[in-house]
Automatic annotation (TrEMBL):
Taxonomic path: Bacteria, Bacillati, Actinomycetota, Actinomycetes, Kitasatosporales
Name this protein carries in UniProt: Acyl-CoA dehydrogenase
SUPFAM superfamilies, per the entry: Acyl-CoA dehydrogenase C-terminal domain-like, Acyl-CoA dehydrogenase NM domain-like
Family that this chain belongs to: Belongs to the acyl-CoA dehydrogenase family.
Organism: Streptomyces argyrophylli
PANTHER family noted in UniProt: GLUTARYL-COA DEHYDROGENASE, MITOCHONDRIAL (PTHR42807)
């Protein structure tokens, strides 16, 4: 660049100029999801959160299907075939509205649909994926159990052969979409190892009571899955995988979306704090004019946009087929942890107003406490990275 070239203006919304990394198609996906969320979620989500419900979830799923947001990084079967970066941008915009909406999309696409797409038979793919991509059928993913979260190898849910059929018994816990799902991908112990099963939720013996009294992810459907002698045909098993490699690869895909999504919650909280700092007056001038407030805003902006840059880097690696699970753990560990800190700092700038649902900050902060735990706790991702760095396994 010559000394006389004119620099672009500083953009407080994009201080590093990260939009320059995006192609026109990326921006179109981002803007489509952002517009949908602004119209269909933001005007209502505080009320949903306060009441602890997500009304009209089936309508929302169909609308998300119509804009290509369900299973969007998968190809064929009615899926959009979007890039990993485009899927990440969608997750960011959805979680900027609410983590519960991003969770709906993540569980549908990165867990339930991804499992069927990668490990299912052609018949299973044709039966379920087009309707799931359209939002006509909602899916859930049954791995976590009441007594076994971080240690899925110890799951108690089991499936036994009975002639040509399988009979499933067990319990799953903290299952997003469970009570509204038309199909559940359930992982169970068998004599051959852990296997996945595609379970229509109208199967006799299957039930999904909704979990109430949550103080996080309140605008999200969370359920227990109960399987009492659920009889399934041989065609219900996912034929292309045996062992924990199956569910863990699905979780890695979902964690990638969280790397982006957490930055959406952080961005929403940062923007609320920045707007508030510009307009809230104390001691005769806006609080944004005080050094301590500016220091907070600067630190928040640095961590926010570093996190987005990290997410973008991981997305390009995924698109190139070079993203390792340890790198996903790196992103999930950093971005969720920093997003929570951004929300907490934003709350201090808003003062007492920070706890009000008039502003999104406390809602995002409490939601992120769940995001911090699911798809691998902080401790689990620290140990994944610790093992990768040292070559020594500290899990057991």
């Amino acid at each position: 660049m010559s000394a006389s070239a004119k620099l672009p203006p500083f953009d407080a919304a994009d201080p590093l100029g990260l939009d320059d990394l995006l192609e026109p198609e990326d921006l179109a996906v981002r803007d489509t999801v952002r517009t949908w969320a602004a119209d269909r979620v933001l005007p209502y989500v505080a009320d949903w959160y306060e009441k602890g419900e997500l009304p009209g979830i089936r309508d929302l799923a169909r609308e998300l299907g119509s804009i290509g947001a369900l299973g969007m990084s998968l190809t064929g079967y009615g899926c959009a075939g979007a890039s990993a970066v485009q899927y990440g941008l969608a997750c960011l915009e959805l979680e900027a509205a609410d983590s519960g909406i991003r969770s709906l999309v993540s569980v549908q696409g990165s867990l339930a649909m991804y499992a069927i797409h990668r490990f299912g038979s052609e018949e299973q793919k044709l039966q379920w994926l087009p309707r799931m991509a359209a939002g006509e059928v909602i899916g859930c993913f049954g791995l976590t159990e009441p007594d076994h979260g971080s240690d899925p190898a110890s799951m108690r849910t089991h499936a036994k052969r009975d002639g040509e059929d399988w009979v499933l018994n067990g319990r799953k816990m903290w299952i997003t979409n469970g009570s509204v799902a038309g199909v559940a991908v359930v992982w169970a112990q068998t004599e051959e190892g852990v296997r996945g099963f595609v379970v229509p939720t109208d199967s006799p013996g299957f039930s999904a009571p909704e979990i109430k009294h949550k103080w996080s992810l309140r605008a999200s459907v969370t359920s227990e899955l109960v399987l009492d002698d659920v009889r399934l045909p041989a065609t219900a098993v996912l034929p292309e995988v045996t062992g924990l490699r199956g569910p863990l690869s699905c979780l890695s895909h979902a964690r990638y979306g969280i790397v982006w999504g957490a930055m959406g919650a952080a961005r929403s909280s940062f923007e609320a704090a920045l707007d508030y700092a510009r307009s809230r007056e104390q001691f005769g001038r806006p609080i944004g004019g005080f050094q301590l407030t500016q220091a907070k805003l600067a630190d928040m902006a640095v961590e926010l946009h570093k996190g987005i840059l990290l997410a973008h880097h991981l997305g390009r690696r995924m698109d190139a087929g070079r993203l390792r699970p340890e790198q996903v753990s790196f992103g999930k560990l950093n971005n969720v942890r920093e997003a929570i800190e951004i929300c907490r700092t934003a709350r201090t700038i808003l003062g007492a107003n920070g706890i009000s649902l008039e502003y999104p900050v406390m809602r995002h902060a409490t939601n992120l406490e769940s995001v911090l735990t699911y798809e691998g706790t902080v401790e689990m991702h620290q140990l994944v990275l610790g093992k990768a760095l040292t070559g020594l396994d500290a899990f057991r």
